[in-house]
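Q: I have three molecules that I believe assemble together. Could you output structure tokens for the complex as a whole instead of separate predictions?
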Amino acid sequence: MSAIVPVSAAGKTERSGRRLTAYLLLLPGGLWLLLFFVVPIVTLLAASLYDPDGSIEAGFSMTWSWHNYVDALADYARPFGRSLWYALLTTAFCLLLGYPLAYAIAFKAGRWRNVMLALVIAPFFTSFLIRTLSWKLLLSDNGFVVDALKAVHILGSDGRLLATTAAVVTGLTYNFLPFMVLPLYASLEKIDHRLIEAGGDLFAGPFTTFRTVTLPLSMPGVVAGTLLTFIPAAGDYINAQLLGTPKQRMIGNDIQRLFAAGAYPTAAALSVTLMAAIVVLVLFYVRRAGTEELV
Amino acid sequence: MTSDLVLTGISKQFSGHRAVHELDLTVPQGEFFALLGPSGCGKTTTLRMVAGLEEPTAGTIRLGEQDITGLRPYKRPVNTVFQNYALFPHLDIFENVAFGLRRRGIKEVKQKVGEMLDLVELGAYGKRKPGQLSGGQQQRVALARALINRPQVLLLDEPLGALDLKLRRQMQIELKRIQTEVGITFVHVTHDQEEAMTMADTIAVMNAGVIEQLGSPAELYDLPATTFVANFLGQSNLVRATILGQADGSLVVDVHGGKVTVPVPRCRVTEGDVWMGIRPEKVFLAPAGSEEDAGSNVLRSAVVTDVSYIGVSTQYLAKLPWGQELTMFEQNTGARAALKVGDAVDLHWQPSHTFVLDAAQDAHAGVEDIAE
Amino acid sequence: MTRVGRWIGRHLILFIGLLVLLYLFAPIFVVMLMSFNAPTSKLTYTFDGFTWQNWLHPCRPSGLCEAVSVSLRIGLAATVIATALGTLMAFAMVRQRFRGRSATNLFIFLPMASPEIVLGSSLLALFVSSGFGGRLGFWTILIAHVMFCLSFVVVTVKARLTGMDSRLEQAAMDLYANEWQTFWRITFPLVFPGILAAALLSFSLSFDDFIITNLNAGTTVTFPMFVWGSAQRDIPPQINVVGTAMFLLALVFVLGGELARRRRRSTRAR
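A: Yes, here they are, computed for all three components at once.
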């Protein structure tokens, strides 16, 4: 717990003593993560290769059935792709809506900054299932939102919002917006105002200053926010189930259903594929965006 | 019982670079001692080793009879005033100052803290938090917090660095006064040579982990031991020269053809190639060809190339026949009119102000450069 | 440009920001409204009439209060464990020097960045294959919750800790405080707001979790699971009572903290 090297007669042992302290501090938490995060992932990998004809009662035998992956993807390619697509849409909308909000809080809120942050965080404490149910109400066929949209002819006279892709994406965007706003805010808040002033001083108009100074400096926040939004959105199934129809089914729905039905190998294969897809996309994205400090 | 601070063979090696190299240092009790040097010279590292916040790679530190090298900081009768004050933000001023007393279980905290706050003229600020105080006030709290524990040695790590000029000058006088009043040994680390010379009884000039010279401000200024010290403390003119011989207790030195005498005690080397040094304020610019006083050193045929009026003095640059430009300061007493650019002049000075250094040293050591 | 136009232009960002904030709050208003709902039919989820009954008898739907109690107990336990372990880890990562720091960083970030369905299903796979498939319940849920809360705690406490000047601890030791005293009198009070924030975050993540919990709960029912179940059947308005209560509690907490901070700041001279 000390911040500096303690003085002692034997310098070498003191330094390794410090390292020991570090490992001791890391041990309980690290062990927990190892046991209940790393090992489960490995178990999941193993389960994806079990004999698909097994069951919970009869038990599963490891048969190295790589074809589980082929079968799973063949059957579930559509919801899989749809999940990634919805997640992409969600991330884009979250960025579009979240950036102005984060910017407003960071630069325009003044004394109300902390209050606005509190307002962004507070809804988070209400169960998100309840809030999603509320969207069901808000977007319902005889709700005022649909009525208003019909009045301005955005929706046709027999149009509806619920049970459509739009509803699912709206729900997803809503649920993950704070995950985009908070990292963006943290990044924007760190920007030295004088840099923006320097941009203006060097004859850049407000848009140019934003494009050349603010936006690049907020990239760590953008990267963190998009990751924290895209990844969970890809695996979500609540919004699809409550606000959509089977046509909007996401891969999460299927994984959940298969697990509940006891079809572990298939479900595990889908899970692993989802994880792998995300990892690949993330690596590609992070390398292109070029930031290292995520945490 | 004297509790002199004695460092013997102190070294500190960080991975990759050597901060302090086999330092030997004795700080007599009750003295105001300054560790002076540019950033990166190892002075702060040395200070931290005395405080116990850094562990020496080798060497010992003794305080009087006690070997404190292996002691934890909280076991040493030594306190530190930190560069950024390091006041505890969640405690008020009273508790900050009382902190050390409370840890040692000393009684009558209220009275002692009150006295100390009065000493630094912050008696009414006990209930405030550090964040509510100005820089100068925070600095005084940091001082009070350390002094109240009556340490045997008080360490100050560039405590005046964050203050503006006027305040800094004020605090310099204050610190000196307090030190004289309280009688504790002060070890003051700074990169500001004027500050060191104003406040300290003894200065150790450090460069790249070693002490270049140790002595009183006057000794260091008047007779620098190395080109670094000559350039770091004030300014010096260093001219390439060769020692010709010795006569009557003085060395005769050939300076680009001219002859100059230097008393032997003022020469660090007595033969071969040397740097001849003379401080700018010691040189008198006489009109070219004028008669010199008996025994003066003279360099002839210089041309004034720059005149800068600085209020108190006028600074001249004069170019010598071999191309080197030397600097001269002349106090504006009004005794004579200023010279003009292009005037032909001779340089006159007293031999007893000359000093001679080893030519192997870098003539630019210790000079502050914009390019650096 | 007109004066109004210029005013709008300058405040456009703020305006958009407030709109988005409104968007964030729209469902909350619905939740608060529906908590006073007197439903006429079990089939439709609409506002039929106003009543105080839901607030007066929040536990009428069977299983609701039991579910809330389960969620609260798990939330509390998970918060305590995750905050303790996570704080230790944060200290190690910020204050100690050791090899493998960036690997540990990645290790901590991964659970935060994994989809819940993967986290939940992998845990289920672990429990089943180690023979606990039939004993899913309170403890398996707790294990899962601590697991995903840990990373958030570490990140939150780390942020607070890195902002803390380590020279304060050096100053304390210089002033005769040993390591233990330095920690309790200087380090801990200054890190505490971060630890508190981490605990609050943990609790809300745990209380609100559904996907991971659902996979690993067996027959135990937490509050989100209760809501999910009722969404398939009829939705008792008391659910919204709980939701509103949680929201108001959170608001009080967060705004109260802000008020306290403002009052402290107003006593400063500068």
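A: One point stands out. Chain C touches chain B at residues 165, 167-168, 170-178, 181, 186, 189-190, 268-270 (CB under 8 Å).
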